[in-house]
Design a protein that fits this description.
The structure is a homodimer.
Chain A lengths: L1 E4 L4 H12 L5 E4 L12 H4 L9 E4 L2 E4 L1 H11 L10 H18 L5 H9 L5 H26 L13 H15 L8 H10 L3 H6 L9
Chain lengths: 214, 214
Protein backbone atom coordinates (compact mmCIF):
# COMPACT_ATOMS: atom_id res chain seq x y z
CA UNK A 1 0.00 0.00 0.00
CA UNK A 2 1.07 3.54 -0.70
CA UNK A 3 -0.10 6.51 1.36
CA UNK A 4 0.01 9.98 -0.17
CA UNK A 5 0.08 12.18 2.87
CA UNK A 6 1.61 15.07 4.78
CA UNK A 7 3.17 14.78 8.21
CA UNK A 8 1.10 17.57 9.76
CA UNK A 9 -2.26 16.78 8.13
CA UNK A 10 -4.51 15.35 10.79
CA UNK A 11 -6.59 13.37 8.29
CA UNK A 12 -3.30 11.74 7.18
CA UNK A 13 -2.38 11.13 10.81
CA UNK A 14 -5.68 9.26 11.32
CA UNK A 15 -4.92 6.86 8.48
CA UNK A 16 -1.35 6.29 9.65
CA UNK A 17 -2.67 5.31 13.11
CA UNK A 18 -5.21 2.91 11.59
CA UNK A 19 -2.58 1.30 9.34
CA UNK A 20 -0.28 0.88 12.33
CA UNK A 21 -3.02 -0.55 14.54
CA UNK A 22 -3.80 -3.09 11.81
CA UNK A 23 -0.11 -3.90 11.48
CA UNK A 24 -0.10 -3.05 7.77
CA UNK A 25 3.09 -2.02 6.00
CA UNK A 26 2.87 1.01 3.72
CA UNK A 27 5.06 3.28 1.71
CA UNK A 28 4.73 7.02 2.25
CA UNK A 29 4.66 9.64 -0.47
CA UNK A 30 4.87 13.17 0.87
CA UNK A 31 2.48 15.78 -0.51
CA UNK A 32 3.68 19.05 0.97
CA UNK A 33 0.69 21.29 1.64
CA UNK A 34 2.50 24.62 1.81
CA UNK A 35 5.70 24.28 -0.24
CA UNK A 36 5.58 25.63 -3.79
CA UNK A 37 2.05 26.94 -3.27
CA UNK A 38 0.87 23.50 -2.15
CA UNK A 39 1.71 20.23 -3.88
CA UNK A 40 -1.89 19.05 -3.39
CA UNK A 41 -2.94 21.70 -5.91
CA UNK A 42 -0.64 20.42 -8.67
CA UNK A 43 -2.20 18.78 -11.73
CA UNK A 44 -0.30 15.56 -11.00
CA UNK A 45 -1.97 15.28 -7.61
CA UNK A 46 -5.37 16.33 -8.91
CA UNK A 47 -5.24 13.21 -11.06
CA UNK A 48 -5.09 11.19 -7.82
CA UNK A 49 -7.77 13.17 -6.02
CA UNK A 50 -9.99 15.70 -7.74
CA UNK A 51 -10.74 17.23 -4.34
CA UNK A 52 -7.03 18.08 -3.89
CA UNK A 53 -6.86 16.74 -0.35
CA UNK A 54 -4.59 14.32 1.44
CA UNK A 55 -4.61 11.51 2.35
CA UNK A 56 -4.98 9.20 -0.63
CA UNK A 57 -4.38 5.49 -0.08
CA UNK A 58 -3.37 3.39 -3.06
CA UNK A 59 -4.13 -0.29 -2.56
CA UNK A 60 -3.85 -2.85 -5.33
CA UNK A 61 -4.20 -0.09 -7.93
CA UNK A 62 -7.26 1.46 -6.32
CA UNK A 63 -7.12 5.07 -5.17
CA UNK A 64 -9.06 5.67 -1.99
CA UNK A 65 -9.86 9.10 -0.56
CA UNK A 66 -11.43 10.60 2.56
CA UNK A 67 -9.79 9.37 5.75
CA UNK A 68 -12.92 7.88 7.32
CA UNK A 69 -13.78 5.97 4.14
CA UNK A 70 -10.20 4.69 4.00
CA UNK A 71 -10.33 3.49 7.62
CA UNK A 72 -13.69 1.77 7.10
CA UNK A 73 -12.12 0.07 4.05
CA UNK A 74 -9.16 -1.11 6.15
CA UNK A 75 -11.61 -2.38 8.77
CA UNK A 76 -13.49 -4.38 6.12
CA UNK A 77 -10.44 -5.77 4.36
CA UNK A 78 -8.28 -6.34 7.48
CA UNK A 79 -10.74 -6.93 10.31
CA UNK A 80 -8.14 -7.68 12.99
CA UNK A 81 -7.74 -6.02 15.38
CA UNK A 82 -11.18 -4.43 15.04
CA UNK A 83 -11.56 -0.65 15.23
CA UNK A 84 -15.32 -0.89 15.58
CA UNK A 85 -17.20 -2.94 18.20
CA UNK A 86 -19.62 -5.67 17.07
CA UNK A 87 -22.88 -4.33 18.44
CA UNK A 88 -24.66 -1.94 16.02
CA UNK A 89 -25.59 0.53 18.78
CA UNK A 90 -21.98 0.66 19.95
CA UNK A 91 -20.75 0.98 16.38
CA UNK A 92 -23.08 3.92 15.90
CA UNK A 93 -21.78 5.49 19.12
CA UNK A 94 -18.14 5.14 18.04
CA UNK A 95 -18.89 6.46 14.56
CA UNK A 96 -20.82 9.40 15.99
CA UNK A 97 -17.86 10.43 18.15
CA UNK A 98 -15.54 10.11 15.16
CA UNK A 99 -17.92 12.12 12.97
CA UNK A 100 -18.26 14.84 15.57
CA UNK A 101 -14.55 15.44 15.12
CA UNK A 102 -14.55 14.86 11.36
CA UNK A 103 -17.62 17.00 10.63
CA UNK A 104 -18.00 19.53 13.44
CA UNK A 105 -14.42 20.45 14.30
CA UNK A 106 -11.85 19.59 11.67
CA UNK A 107 -13.48 21.01 8.48
CA UNK A 108 -13.62 24.48 10.00
CA UNK A 109 -9.89 24.48 10.60
CA UNK A 110 -8.76 23.12 7.29
CA UNK A 111 -5.92 25.03 5.62
CA UNK A 112 -8.03 26.23 2.68
CA UNK A 113 -10.77 27.42 5.00
CA UNK A 114 -8.36 29.46 7.12
CA UNK A 115 -6.93 30.95 3.93
CA UNK A 116 -10.38 31.95 2.72
CA UNK A 117 -11.06 33.72 6.02
CA UNK A 118 -7.91 35.79 5.68
CA UNK A 119 -7.70 36.35 1.93
CA UNK A 120 -11.33 36.61 0.92
CA UNK A 121 -13.06 37.82 4.06
CA UNK A 122 -10.24 40.03 5.34
CA UNK A 123 -10.25 38.43 8.78
CA UNK A 124 -7.21 39.33 10.93
CA UNK A 125 -4.75 36.65 12.00
CA UNK A 126 -5.84 37.14 15.58
CA UNK A 127 -9.51 36.61 14.77
CA UNK A 128 -8.65 33.66 12.54
CA UNK A 129 -6.84 32.04 15.47
CA UNK A 130 -9.88 32.80 17.63
CA UNK A 131 -12.08 31.04 15.08
CA UNK A 132 -9.77 28.03 15.15
CA UNK A 133 -9.80 27.80 18.91
CA UNK A 134 -13.54 28.40 19.15
CA UNK A 135 -14.47 25.36 17.09
CA UNK A 136 -11.86 23.11 18.68
CA UNK A 137 -12.69 24.07 22.26
CA UNK A 138 -16.43 23.96 21.66
CA UNK A 139 -16.29 20.64 19.82
CA UNK A 140 -14.09 18.95 22.40
CA UNK A 141 -16.36 20.24 25.19
CA UNK A 142 -19.37 18.69 23.43
CA UNK A 143 -17.61 15.33 23.24
CA UNK A 144 -16.52 15.54 26.88
CA UNK A 145 -20.12 16.33 27.88
CA UNK A 146 -21.31 13.34 25.89
CA UNK A 147 -18.82 11.04 27.62
CA UNK A 148 -19.86 12.29 31.05
CA UNK A 149 -23.52 11.76 30.16
CA UNK A 150 -23.04 8.30 28.66
CA UNK A 151 -20.33 6.91 30.97
CA UNK A 152 -19.21 4.38 28.38
CA UNK A 153 -15.53 5.28 28.37
CA UNK A 154 -12.86 3.11 29.94
CA UNK A 155 -9.19 3.28 29.10
CA UNK A 156 -10.34 4.65 25.74
CA UNK A 157 -13.42 6.42 24.38
CA UNK A 158 -15.53 3.26 24.43
CA UNK A 159 -14.44 0.76 27.03
CA UNK A 160 -10.93 -0.63 27.14
CA UNK A 161 -10.29 -1.24 23.45
CA UNK A 162 -9.02 1.35 20.99
CA UNK A 163 -11.64 2.25 18.40
CA UNK A 164 -12.08 4.49 15.40
CA UNK A 165 -13.11 7.28 17.78
CA UNK A 166 -9.69 7.26 19.48
CA UNK A 167 -8.04 7.25 16.06
CA UNK A 168 -9.85 10.53 15.31
CA UNK A 169 -9.36 12.04 18.77
CA UNK A 170 -5.59 11.96 18.94
CA UNK A 171 -4.80 14.01 15.81
CA UNK A 172 -7.44 16.54 16.85
CA UNK A 173 -5.74 16.98 20.23
CA UNK A 174 -2.40 17.44 18.45
CA UNK A 175 -3.98 20.26 16.44
CA UNK A 176 -5.49 21.75 19.58
CA UNK A 177 -2.10 21.83 21.27
CA UNK A 178 -0.35 23.24 18.22
CA UNK A 179 -2.78 26.17 18.15
CA UNK A 180 -2.65 26.58 21.95
CA UNK A 181 -6.33 25.80 22.38
CA UNK A 182 -7.64 25.22 25.89
CA UNK A 183 -7.76 21.56 26.82
CA UNK A 184 -8.04 21.87 30.60
CA UNK A 185 -11.85 21.78 30.26
CA UNK A 186 -11.74 18.24 28.82
CA UNK A 187 -9.85 16.14 31.40
CA UNK A 188 -11.48 12.86 30.44
CA UNK A 189 -10.49 13.31 26.80
CA UNK A 190 -6.96 14.27 27.79
CA UNK A 191 -6.61 11.17 29.94
CA UNK A 192 -7.64 9.03 26.97
CA UNK A 193 -5.28 10.97 24.72
CA UNK A 194 -2.39 10.30 27.11
CA UNK A 195 -3.17 6.58 27.20
CA UNK A 196 -3.34 6.40 23.40
CA UNK A 197 0.02 8.14 23.17
CA UNK A 198 1.61 5.28 25.10
CA UNK A 199 0.76 2.89 22.27
CA UNK A 200 3.33 2.34 19.47
CA UNK A 201 0.68 2.68 16.73
CA UNK A 202 -0.06 6.24 17.84
CA UNK A 203 3.52 7.16 18.77
CA UNK A 204 4.85 6.06 15.37
CA UNK A 205 2.11 7.89 13.46
CA UNK A 206 2.66 11.31 15.02
CA UNK A 207 3.81 14.18 12.80
CA UNK A 208 7.31 14.53 14.26
CA UNK A 209 8.14 10.90 13.42
CA UNK A 210 7.28 11.15 9.74
CA UNK A 211 9.92 11.23 7.00
CA UNK A 212 8.65 14.57 5.66
CA UNK A 213 8.60 16.21 9.08
CA UNK A 214 10.43 19.53 9.15
CA UNK B 1 -38.39 4.81 15.90
CA UNK B 2 -38.54 8.48 16.71
CA UNK B 3 -36.62 11.11 14.71
CA UNK B 4 -35.86 14.46 16.33
CA UNK B 5 -35.34 16.66 13.34
CA UNK B 6 -36.07 19.90 11.51
CA UNK B 7 -37.65 20.11 8.09
CA UNK B 8 -34.93 22.31 6.61
CA UNK B 9 -31.88 20.64 8.20
CA UNK B 10 -30.08 18.75 5.49
CA UNK B 11 -28.58 16.25 7.94
CA UNK B 12 -32.16 15.48 9.02
CA UNK B 13 -33.21 15.23 5.37
CA UNK B 14 -30.51 12.57 4.81
CA UNK B 15 -31.86 10.39 7.59
CA UNK B 16 -35.47 10.79 6.42
CA UNK B 17 -34.44 9.58 2.95
CA UNK B 18 -32.59 6.57 4.39
CA UNK B 19 -35.55 5.63 6.61
CA UNK B 20 -37.88 5.91 3.62
CA UNK B 21 -35.59 3.86 1.36
CA UNK B 22 -35.50 1.14 4.02
CA UNK B 23 -39.28 1.29 4.35
CA UNK B 24 -39.09 2.03 8.08
CA UNK B 25 -41.91 3.80 9.89
CA UNK B 26 -40.91 6.61 12.22
CA UNK B 27 -42.46 9.32 14.30
CA UNK B 28 -41.15 12.85 13.86
CA UNK B 29 -40.44 15.31 16.66
CA UNK B 30 -39.71 18.80 15.38
CA UNK B 31 -36.75 20.68 16.82
CA UNK B 32 -37.07 24.18 15.44
CA UNK B 33 -33.61 25.59 14.79
CA UNK B 34 -34.47 29.27 14.71
CA UNK B 35 -37.67 29.72 16.76
CA UNK B 36 -37.20 30.92 20.34
CA UNK B 37 -33.46 31.26 19.84
CA UNK B 38 -33.19 27.67 18.64
CA UNK B 39 -34.87 24.69 20.28
CA UNK B 40 -31.70 22.64 19.75
CA UNK B 41 -30.00 24.87 22.34
CA UNK B 42 -32.57 24.14 25.08
CA UNK B 43 -31.50 22.10 28.09
CA UNK B 44 -34.16 19.50 27.29
CA UNK B 45 -32.59 18.87 23.89
CA UNK B 46 -29.05 18.99 25.18
CA UNK B 47 -29.98 15.93 27.28
CA UNK B 48 -30.64 14.12 23.99
CA UNK B 49 -27.53 15.39 22.21
CA UNK B 50 -24.73 17.22 23.99
CA UNK B 51 -23.62 18.59 20.63
CA UNK B 52 -26.99 20.37 20.21
CA UNK B 53 -27.48 19.21 16.64
CA UNK B 54 -30.30 17.50 14.80
CA UNK B 55 -31.01 14.80 13.83
CA UNK B 56 -31.24 12.40 16.75
CA UNK B 57 -32.77 8.99 16.12
CA UNK B 58 -34.29 7.15 19.05
CA UNK B 59 -34.50 3.41 18.45
CA UNK B 60 -35.44 0.93 21.17
CA UNK B 61 -34.41 3.43 23.84
CA UNK B 62 -31.05 4.19 22.25
CA UNK B 63 -30.25 7.75 21.19
CA UNK B 64 -28.20 7.91 18.00
CA UNK B 65 -26.54 11.06 16.67
CA UNK B 66 -24.61 12.17 13.56
CA UNK B 67 -26.52 11.50 10.36
CA UNK B 68 -23.87 9.28 8.75
CA UNK B 69 -23.55 7.14 11.89
CA UNK B 70 -27.33 6.82 11.99
CA UNK B 71 -27.51 5.73 8.36
CA UNK B 72 -24.70 3.18 8.82
CA UNK B 73 -26.67 1.87 11.82
CA UNK B 74 -29.82 1.55 9.71
CA UNK B 75 -27.77 -0.26 7.06
CA UNK B 76 -26.48 -2.74 9.63
CA UNK B 77 -29.80 -3.33 11.38
CA UNK B 78 -32.02 -3.24 8.26
CA UNK B 79 -29.79 -4.38 5.40
CA UNK B 80 -32.48 -4.36 2.70
CA UNK B 81 -32.42 -2.61 0.36
CA UNK B 82 -28.69 -1.96 0.73
CA UNK B 83 -27.36 1.61 0.63
CA UNK B 84 -23.79 0.41 0.26
CA UNK B 85 -22.49 -1.98 -2.40
CA UNK B 86 -20.87 -5.28 -1.35
CA UNK B 87 -17.36 -4.78 -2.71
CA UNK B 88 -15.03 -2.99 -0.23
CA UNK B 89 -13.49 -0.78 -2.94
CA UNK B 90 -16.94 0.30 -4.09
CA UNK B 91 -18.06 0.83 -0.51
CA UNK B 92 -15.04 3.08 0.03
CA UNK B 93 -15.89 5.00 -3.13
CA UNK B 94 -19.50 5.57 -2.06
CA UNK B 95 -18.45 6.57 1.45
CA UNK B 96 -15.83 8.96 0.09
CA UNK B 97 -18.42 10.77 -2.03
CA UNK B 98 -20.75 10.97 0.95
CA UNK B 99 -17.94 12.24 3.18
CA UNK B 100 -16.90 14.86 0.63
CA UNK B 101 -20.34 16.37 1.13
CA UNK B 102 -20.49 15.71 4.87
CA UNK B 103 -16.98 16.99 5.64
CA UNK B 104 -15.96 19.40 2.88
CA UNK B 105 -19.19 21.23 2.07
CA UNK B 106 -21.90 20.98 4.68
CA UNK B 107 -19.97 21.87 7.90
CA UNK B 108 -18.93 25.22 6.46
CA UNK B 109 -22.54 26.17 5.86
CA UNK B 110 -24.00 25.07 9.14
CA UNK B 111 -26.24 27.61 10.88
CA UNK B 112 -23.91 28.16 13.83
CA UNK B 113 -20.94 28.66 11.53
CA UNK B 114 -22.75 31.30 9.48
CA UNK B 115 -23.77 33.02 12.70
CA UNK B 116 -20.16 33.08 13.92
CA UNK B 117 -19.05 34.69 10.67
CA UNK B 118 -21.55 37.51 11.08
CA UNK B 119 -21.63 38.01 14.84
CA UNK B 120 -18.05 37.29 15.83
CA UNK B 121 -16.06 38.10 12.72
CA UNK B 122 -18.23 40.98 11.51
CA UNK B 123 -18.60 39.52 8.02
CA UNK B 124 -21.30 41.24 5.93
CA UNK B 125 -24.37 39.29 4.80
CA UNK B 126 -23.17 39.58 1.23
CA UNK B 127 -19.76 38.10 2.00
CA UNK B 128 -21.37 35.43 4.16
CA UNK B 129 -23.52 34.40 1.20
CA UNK B 130 -20.38 34.42 -0.96
CA UNK B 131 -18.72 32.09 1.54
CA UNK B 132 -21.73 29.76 1.41
CA UNK B 133 -21.74 29.63 -2.35
CA UNK B 134 -17.96 29.26 -2.59
CA UNK B 135 -17.85 26.01 -0.60
CA UNK B 136 -20.95 24.56 -2.23
CA UNK B 137 -19.90 25.36 -5.80
CA UNK B 138 -16.31 24.27 -5.22
CA UNK B 139 -17.31 21.06 -3.45
CA UNK B 140 -19.87 20.06 -6.07
CA UNK B 141 -17.32 20.78 -8.82
CA UNK B 142 -14.81 18.47 -7.12
CA UNK B 143 -17.38 15.68 -7.00
CA UNK B 144 -18.38 16.25 -10.63
CA UNK B 145 -14.68 16.11 -11.63
CA UNK B 146 -14.30 12.88 -9.72
CA UNK B 147 -17.31 11.34 -11.48
CA UNK B 148 -15.97 12.36 -14.88
CA UNK B 149 -12.56 10.89 -14.02
CA UNK B 150 -13.92 7.63 -12.62
CA UNK B 151 -16.89 7.04 -14.95
CA UNK B 152 -18.62 4.81 -12.41
CA UNK B 153 -21.95 6.62 -12.36
CA UNK B 154 -25.10 5.27 -13.96
CA UNK B 155 -28.61 6.34 -13.12
CA UNK B 156 -27.15 7.29 -9.74
CA UNK B 157 -23.71 8.16 -8.34
CA UNK B 158 -22.49 4.58 -8.48
CA UNK B 159 -24.19 2.51 -11.12
CA UNK B 160 -27.93 2.07 -11.26
CA UNK B 161 -28.71 1.56 -7.58
CA UNK B 162 -29.29 4.32 -5.07
CA UNK B 163 -26.52 4.45 -2.46
CA UNK B 164 -25.53 6.43 0.59
CA UNK B 165 -23.81 8.92 -1.72
CA UNK B 166 -27.11 9.81 -3.41
CA UNK B 167 -28.72 10.15 0.02
CA UNK B 168 -26.15 12.84 0.82
CA UNK B 169 -26.20 14.51 -2.59
CA UNK B 170 -29.88 15.40 -2.75
CA UNK B 171 -30.12 17.50 0.45
CA UNK B 172 -26.92 19.28 -0.54
CA UNK B 173 -28.44 20.25 -3.90
CA UNK B 174 -31.55 21.50 -2.11
CA UNK B 175 -29.30 23.77 -0.03
CA UNK B 176 -27.46 24.89 -3.15
CA UNK B 177 -30.70 25.88 -4.81
CA UNK B 178 -32.04 27.61 -1.73
CA UNK B 179 -28.95 29.82 -1.60
CA UNK B 180 -28.95 30.34 -5.39
CA UNK B 181 -25.59 28.67 -5.87
CA UNK B 182 -24.46 27.87 -9.38
CA UNK B 183 -25.29 24.32 -10.39
CA UNK B 184 -24.91 24.63 -14.18
CA UNK B 185 -21.26 23.55 -13.86
CA UNK B 186 -22.29 20.13 -12.49
CA UNK B 187 -24.65 18.66 -15.10
CA UNK B 188 -23.91 15.03 -14.23
CA UNK B 189 -24.77 15.64 -10.59
CA UNK B 190 -27.93 17.50 -11.54
CA UNK B 191 -29.05 14.64 -13.76
CA UNK B 192 -28.62 12.25 -10.85
CA UNK B 193 -30.40 14.67 -8.54
CA UNK B 194 -33.36 14.81 -10.93
CA UNK B 195 -33.57 11.03 -11.10
CA UNK B 196 -33.47 10.72 -7.31
CA UNK B 197 -36.27 13.25 -7.03
CA UNK B 198 -38.52 10.95 -9.04
CA UNK B 199 -38.35 8.35 -6.26
CA UNK B 200 -40.96 8.42 -3.48
CA UNK B 201 -38.33 7.99 -0.73
CA UNK B 202 -36.70 11.27 -1.77
CA UNK B 203 -39.91 13.09 -2.64
CA UNK B 204 -41.49 12.29 0.72
CA UNK B 205 -38.37 13.30 2.68
CA UNK B 206 -38.02 16.79 1.21
CA UNK B 207 -38.40 19.81 3.49
CA UNK B 208 -41.69 21.08 2.04
CA UNK B 209 -43.45 17.78 2.80
CA UNK B 210 -42.56 17.69 6.49
CA UNK B 211 -45.10 18.37 9.24
CA UNK B 212 -43.01 21.25 10.64
CA UNK B 213 -42.51 22.91 7.26
CA UNK B 214 -43.45 26.58 7.30
Amino acid sequence: MKLYNYFRSSASFRVRIALNLKGLAYEQVSVHLTRGGGEQLAESFRALNADQLVPVLEDDGHLLTQSLAIIEYLEETHPQPPLLPRDPVERAYVRSLALTIACEIHPLNNLRVLRYLVRDLGVSDEKKDGWYRHWVERGLAAIEARLLAECRQGLYLLGDDVTLADVLLVPQIFNAQRYTCRVDHVPVLMGIFDRCMQLPAFIDAQPSKQPDSE
